[in-house]
Amino acid sequence: MLVGDGLLQTGHTYRVPDLLDGFDVLAGTSTEGLSATLEPGLFRITSADQPQPVLAMFRGDLASWNPDPTYDPMIPVPADRMENRPALDIDAATLAAQLPTSVTIGEGPTPIDVGGHPAVQFVLRHDGPGLDGCRTPCVAPLIQSSGRVAYLYDGVPRRFTIVDVDGQTLVVVTTGDTGDAILAGLRVEAPPST
User: Fold this and answer.
1) What is the mean pLDDT of the chain?
2) What is the spatial distance between Cα 88 and Cα 118, in angstroms, rounded to a whole number?
3) What is the spatial distance between Cα 53 and Cα 166, in angstroms, rounded to a whole number?
4) The whole model's pTM is what?
5) Of 147, 182, 149, residue with least CA distance to 28
6) In a domain, 194, yes or no
7) Are the C-beta atoms of 90 and 124 separated by less than 8 Å?
8) Most buried by CB count within 10 Å: which residue of 10, 29, 30, 97?
C-alpha cells in the first residue's frame, strides 16, 4: 500500500517513495493510533502521546550534522551549513565533533544491517539549554536543506540509523520501542513496475 498522510492501519505494510532514487522503503506497524506524514525527502510516523515522531526517515543527501545548539534551520538552509553529511564510516569521536556540546552519545556507533543493507546506529540524548521555540529544551543535531530537522528533546534518547543503499544514504531516527519495532521491519526494494 502506498503511504500517504493520515492514520496508519496496523498489520499493513506501507511503501514510502522518494527517500531513495530507484528504491522504495517499506514500513509497517503493529501499534494502534499512529499517523504518517510524507513530504519530499521526509517521512514521519507520529503518536499523539509524545512530542517527537516515533520514526522519521530522511534522504541523507539532503541532510547535514549541525553542531550549533542555537541554530534553528531556516528555509532554505545556507550551503555552508550543509557540509557535514551523515555517513556510515563515522566513529564516536568524529560523531561527537559534529554535535552540539549538550548532546551525548548513549551507545554506538555500531555497525548493523537494515533490510539487507549495511548501516551504523547510535543513540543521542540532549541535556541542557537549547532552542527557544520548542515546548521543552531541544536542539537540532541533524538538519535538511529544506529546513526539516530531527530534534532532540531534553532528556529523551533517540536512535539514529544511517543506512547505505547502493551508495545512497537513508537516515532513520526512532524514539522508544514503537520506533525501534518499525525500524526492525524496514525493507528497501525496487518500486513495482507499472
Assistant:
1) 83
2) 8
3) 27
4) 0.88
5) 182
6) no
7) no
8) 29
